[in-house]
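Try it yourself: sequence plus zinc ion, in.
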Amino acid sequence: MATTDDSFDGMTEHCDDCGTQTPHQVSVQIRTESRKEENAQFSREPYRVSECQHCGSRSSQRMNNA
Ligand SMILES: [Zn+2]
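Structure, out:
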């Protein structure tokens, strides 16, 4: 068995607003970014979005750390 012992379908992460570990719902969004120097070219970046199930605070983080 893996480490899926949560009954909640999500992850427990630290929430800055709550100041403690809370259950988070994690999803991945693809965002299209345009860069000033490459106007004609759009890059699609996957973002990891986690939403605190306690206070509803959302935080997103780019998955490609380039
Ligand atoms: Zn929170």
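One thing you can check immediately is this: The chain has one domain: 11-62.
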